[in-house]
Amino acid sequence: MRALLVVNPAATTTSARTRDVLAHALASDLELEVAQTRYRGHARDLARQAAEGGKTELVVALGGDGTVNEVVNGLLTHGPDPDSHPRLAVVPGGSTNVFARALGLPNDAVEATGALLDALRDGSERTIGLGLAAGTPGSEDEGAPSRWFTFCAGFGFDAGVVGRVEQQRERGKRSTHALYVRQVVRQFMGEANRREGSITLERPGATEGSTEVVEGLAMSIICNTAPWTYLGNRPVYPSPRASFDAALDLFALSKLSAPAVTRYATQLLASTPQRGPHGKHAVSLHDLTDFTLHSQAPLPFQMDGDHLGLRTSVTFTGVRRALRVIV
User: CATH number, domain at 117?
Assistant: First the structure.
């Protein structure tokens, strides 16, 4: 099988020696080409070229969730077609690796490589659904390019936290859970819409041509799978029913006062695959195929942990059976 290994040399949990060993192991079973990323977006370009070349059957992403997201967007440049696109495989190399772990892969790169080789020999794969976000027609973000995400997106509070963490990492800070906790506190203290949210959800209503509207949301998390993220080895489930086999789930809060945040943060930390956060300020929607989030003022936006700036409106689509993955 002809394969491309896309390596992020800045992956936080693998050394250059480890990456060389992993590449050598994969080359024992594959006709392997290795390419290292050199700039932001390079993994997307490499995957797009592999897909368009027509000879590569498998693209392996060695890196964190950001690298995986770029590879997925490269593979799906011309839209989803599982029967013709190269398959995707993942070897986790980031600090969290939500997508790989949600697929059931080991969080250790060496163990995950062994699992990948076993799956290739057994012909084990699955076709998963993905999320797609785009600028909303008629809004000032109409021209924003469409982008796929593998496990989550966020509009509002959590995206602001991601942006703050990225700023700290650009200043040389290590990506640790303590860093995230500090930025959560700072984002909360600077949040302008704590008591009255500015986000409006619109989705098709129960009758043809109708629209269901939910107003006054203060934060929103869109999940394509569960868990949403990990705190160390602890999985966090705002949307426990989210699945790669369904469309998208949405978890939102209509209030971010100190008591409300304390209550829902405690529920998040105690969440399980059977029960997520709940209460009068929580909105939980399952298996959404199409919906739009609007804001009265520009809000932070993130996808798969990558901060994408400020948006006033984003349209989301849940696409079932979008990509084949080796697992």
Answer: 3.40.50.10330
Of 93, 123, 153, the one marking the end of a domain is 123
CATH code of the domain covering residue 198: 2.60.200.40
The residue from 84, 107, 123 where one domain ends is: 123
Return per-residue pLDDT of the chain as tens, 327 residues.
999 999 999 888 899 999 999 999 999 999 999 999 999 999 999 999 999 999 999 999 999 999 999 999 999 999 998 888 899 999 999 988 999 999 999 999 999 999 999 999 999 999 999 999 999 988 888 888 899 999 999 999 999 999 988 888 788 887 777 787 888 888 888 776 666 789 999 999 888 888 999 999 999 999 999 999 998 889 999 999 999 999 999 999 998 888 988 999 999 999 999 999 999 999 999 999 999 999 989 999 999 999 999 999 999 999 999 999 999
Q: Minimal CA–CA distance to 71: which of 36, 43, 32?
A: 43
On whether the CB atoms of residues 252 and 156 are closer than 8 A, the answer is: no
Q: Are residues 208 and 286 in the same domain?
A: yes
Question: Could you tell me where the beta strands, DSSP code E, fall in the chain?
Answer: 2-7, 31-36, 58-63, 87-92, 125-135, 147-149, 152-155, 199-204, 211-217, 219-223, 229-231, 234-236, 248-253, 282-288, 290-303, 306-326
Query: Domain check: are 31 and 156 in the same one?
Result: no
pTM of the model: 0.93
Calpha distance 309→287 (Å, rounded): 26
Range of the domain at 38: 2-123
